[in-house]
Amino acid sequence: MKTLLVAEFREGKLRVKYSQLIAFAQQQGSEASMFLVGSPGDLPQFNGPLYLADVAKYGEYNPSVHKQLLLDVIAKEQPDQIVFHHSSYGWDLAPRIAVALKAAQIAEVVAVEEGLPVVPVCNAKLRRKIKPTTAQTVLTLQAGAFGLEDDPVGTPTVVAIDADAAGKVQCTGYEAAKIEGVDLTKSEIIVSAGRGVGKPENVAMVQALAKALGGEYGASRPVVDAGWVEHNRQVGTTGSTVTPKLYVACGISGAIQHLAGMKKSEFIVAVNTDKDAPIGEVANVLVVADLKQFLPVLTEKLNAL
Amino acid sequence: MNILICIKQVPDMESKFKINGEGNWYDRADLAWRMNEYDEYAVEQAVRLKEQVKDADLTVLCIGPDQVTETMKKALAMGCDRGVHIADADSYKREPIEIASMIAGFAKDKNFDVIFTGMQSQDRGSAQVGVMVAELLGIAAVTTIVGFAYDNGTINVKRELEGGSKALVTTTTPVVLTCQLGLNTPRYPTLPNIMKAKKKELLTLAADAGSVGSRQETAAFYFPEKKGGGIVLEGDAAELADKLIHLLKEKTGVLA
Amino acid sequence: MEFTREIYWNVGHGFTTLAPMYGLLLVALAVFALGFLKRIKVYRLGQPLDRTDQRGERIKHMLENVLLQTKVARVPGAGTAHSLFFWSFVVLFIGTTLIVAQADFTDLLFNVKFLKGTFYQLFSLTLDLAGLVAVVMLGALLTRRYLIRPEGLVTKTDDALMHGLLFAILLTGFLIEGARMAVTEMGTPLAGWSPVGLAVAKMLGGLDEAGLRSLHVGLWWLHLVLALGFIAVIPYSKFRHIVTTSANAFLADRGPTGKLTTVNLEDETIEKFGASELSDLRWKDIFDADACTLCKRCQDRCPAFNTGKPLSPMQLVNQIGEVAFANPQANLIETIGRDAIWACTTCRACQDICPASIEHVNKIIELRRNLVLMEGEFPGEEVMAAMEQTEVNGNPLGMGYASRGDWAEALGVKPLADDPEVDVLYFVGCYASFDKRNIAVAKSFVKLCQAAGVKIGILGKEEKCCGEPMRKMGNEYLYQTLAMETVELIKGYGVKKIVATCPHCFNTLNKDYRDFDFEVEVVPHAVFLEQLVASGQLALKPEAFACTYHDSCYLGRHNDIYDAPRALIRAAGGRISEMAQNRDQAFCCSAGGGRIMAEENIGERINVKRVEMAIATGVEQLLSNCPFCLTMFEDGVKGANAEEQLRPKDIAEILAERV
């Protein structure tokens, strides 16, 4: 089986998560080649052919041009599967390729079971295993679903490619992520403080854990009411309704308004001394512990990773 | 200006899902239905564009069983001018390319300047239909927009990228734009508009996926093993921390 | 000698007196009438509304309110002073009228005198003392307003005019009397029947008769001009409340208390919903502004005002008045401000205490209706989300509708769809269906019913929100959609009696739903349980405990149910330490008026303030009867750092612990 991996280059840099594509190919035991519109000076650690178009010439986001470049490579390489990240680059480009190839496209693959890709349905509440019926398939992989134990190593065999194509869509620049003001609805990881933190000084422990996880900190209404955390960080129906990948509820018993505002999170960890607190009903993991002892230990271990 | 908005009716994600008899999708019983959240942003942006250019005609299109017209009424109440319902009781089985073909089949001779739709649906979540419609129609497409400005045929959008930055993208009509959450604040329909919506044209067409054949099959449809399944961890703090880190690595992508 | 006096003494009773006097009276009355005619024109800018039905009841209510000062006297201090001043002023007015009646009518035309003998003695004494009381009360009110200056009391030039004019009238009255008595009554037995007049007469003792006479005649005319001036100035000053506030007692809303007007959504000719301009309001809403005396009682009790939010019911009513009389085209929503409009919890504390029968809440609802139905505006996105969730899942929490009845499965309580043969339908409400804390209350209630041998059923997944929070937030359309569905559903099951553990559901089903041809009996759980206990059907094992009790706004002020819950608490062995603000003066929990769906991001937290009042009683349990209150207090004890000190509970829970 031959797999063509589509790596990404953005804002002047190779996107490092290409290792997840390699992990996928390795897991399949598939022969892999890679496609990249990138820079010769910033190449992936990859042993195999790398079809490289110069980003200086073709631009970082130029769908119809990238499509043509990729189709040319596919025509030459004849891969069985073309694999993208399920990302703003991948989900934009993959359907264009699928339409052109008349190939099945399977989006946001989270696993491969019995040789068939599995995708989430309804916010990951359900799963669907898909059997493509076309010779070629186009796949996009969910971020983090596949990973290598160690950093990838290797040197690609660069094959420079060119195409004669033009597009009507033009990327004119980037707008940096806003740092002023927090918007928890956009956060992928949230660590929230509830009344169980005991006193305002302990909010710092929650902040430290959030930082260690690379996320934002939030709070339940009583903590905001008490003035320990600013209002725009309140999670719940009367604050922000959030859907992060990971939600860590520290000392939150789980009043209905809070639960309704966070229970759609993909993975919920609750740290609470009370085993029977309502938060336990929505939590994937309930850590029964005094958070004043537990949080610093956890934070330290995470920082050491 | 001629604008098409493609919407989908989806179950509320809070519903109790069950698997259907065929074992290929969820059962329709006991579900609460609503407009796909992403599509609400699409409808809102189209209505705002009409408010800006004044002279525009908004067609909202939805594929599915008769029940979807309830959701279409909301789009009409938000400000769409007419509705096109492609009646298809089997729409839940259709793969994205089939849905895209139906839309393209309807749109091909209508000269739509802009086609708005959600970047994905909440249930199937393939994020394919919008781009495929554009490819089938041979027009441009920009996905995941979180900002939109129109000026005399030129469209400037912002694309949401991973990590919080945004790409500034310029294009021209005709174009398909797929909308991400946060693009705008979808309006709550006013009562006079709800009343007016009841009288707006709502055309029902028969489903026709054209010559596009099936490209994939559902091999299995099931509930995932509970990620944590309410795992309760007790013990010493250091031990707990190790266990939790292990679980996070295993069950989530956040430590990757 | 016969006790009497010569009326028009020293002034003369001829044409030269009567002509200018009655001439001036006519002028005063004309100015008075003109003033009100102009104001009536402004009232008529509002929408029509019939407030002349139930006349007997209305007149009775007006007489009670005006003559007995029932509502004014509810607040001791200023209220007492006003009542006493009012009564003495009425006495003086009647006295003056009697004098005129005798001198210019009965005596003049029929030669009949009645101000004589013992009657005159008493007449003289009564008027003299009334004058004294009036002066003292006026002095007290003056001291309060200008020296004590209570916080929030608005003092304008109008107030100076009122105090000045009334003082001048009373003072000139006594001086006239004194001057007359100094000449005619000194040393007579009659003098003692006018003790104040006598004292004044003695003070004037230094003047000779000619001086007294010229002083008398001068003051007489001055007094006349002042009194007629008073009449003339009524419509143009705060004095107008004498007329408008009294009239408003007649025009008052006759209830049911807190029931909102149901908008006819079928009527396709209606193009505008709610109020954004003066002409969208009803004439009574404009009239209310004229009836307001700025007594600030509403403001003193408003939970929003008292926690730093930009809503003062008094100010809102007066802003409508200002727009009406100065700038009727102005946008009311901009004038009043959105934050003020959204801040109301519809707790009715303002309307309940208002001595002027003003209807504050419906004005706010009308403004909200305009914002929601015409503009699609809400106080925040979280409220819009709650509305959308209710449309999709029938509850503002966004919980999947199909799991609504799950809590009852293990208790043997079935949905009517499975078993419609029940004694009562338990209308559970959204919070007791989905919130773990309130599910505990629902379970307690079920336990009590089962102990009493009452078979209850629920609607289960067919139940939807009653629509109350949405309606109070202005979303009449969503409310009516929910209401009509629920009415149809319940009628379809042939239910005879409904019990609700949520006073908001109770109030809505029992009052608002009546507009949809809904006649089923609805009772709140506190009343239902109290009847079971009183009849012996529900036996309790009392166990002593101390607690305080919070009157929810919708059981208390909206339904006057204060005693049943207290009786239940006592039956369970409870000793209630009342909070300072209890019963009809209870302070809201913050969650009424749809605020349960909204962020409270201005000022202090209302729920924390109420919890602090409960803490001040020193007891460890805060009992209530409402899921919204309970939810707010659970948060409030945390906000007040009092989780260890105070446990909020529903009455049903306390009882269920004792069966």
Please tally the helical runs of chain B, counting DSSP H or I stretches of 4 or more residues: 6
Domain module count of chain B: 2
What is the arithmetic mean of pLDDT of chain B? 93
Structural class of chain C: mainly alpha
Fill in the CATH topology of the largest domain in chain B: Rossmann fold
Please give the CATH architecture of the largest domain in chain B: 3-Layer(aba) Sandwich
Instruction: Write down the Rg of chain C.
Output: 30 Å
Number of helices of chain C: 26
List unreliable stretches of 5+ residues of chain B. Answer: none
Structural class by sheet pairing and helices of chain B: alpha/beta
Quaternary:
heterotrimer
Basic shape of chain B? globular
| Whole-number total of structural domains of chain C | 3
Question: Would you give an account of this structure?
Answer:
The complex is a heterotrimer of chains A (305), B (256) and C (659). By secondary structure, chain A is an alpha/beta fold. Helix content of chain A is 26%, strand content 29%. Chain A has 2 domains: 2-160, 3-Layer(aba) Sandwich (Rossmann fold), CATH 3.40.50; 184-304, 3-Layer(aba) Sandwich (Rossmann fold). Chain A contains 8 helices and 18 strands. In chain A, the strands form 4 sheets. A 7-stranded parallel β-sheet of chain A has the order 7-11-6-1-4-5-12, sandwiched between helices. Chain A has a 5-stranded parallel β-sheet with strand order 15-14-16-17-18. A 3-stranded antiparallel β-sheet of chain A has the order 8-9-10, with no helix packed on it. In chain A, helix 7 (256-262) links the parallel strand 16 and strand 17 (267-272). The mean pLDDT of chain A is 91. Chain B has 256 residues and is α/β, with parallel strands linked by helices. Chain B has 2 domains: 2-206, Rossmann fold, CATH 3.40.50; 224-256. Helices cover 28% and strands 30% of the residues of chain B. Chain B contains 6 helices and 13 strands. Chain B starts with a strand and ends in a 5-residue tail after the last helix. Chain C has 659 residues and is mostly helical. In chain C, 53% of the residues lie in helices and 5% in strands. Chain C is built from 26 helices and 8 strands. Chains in contact: A-B, A-C, B-C. At the A-B interface, helix 4, strand 7, strand 9, strand 10 and strand 13 of A face helix 3, helix 4, strand 7, strand 8 and strand 9 of B.
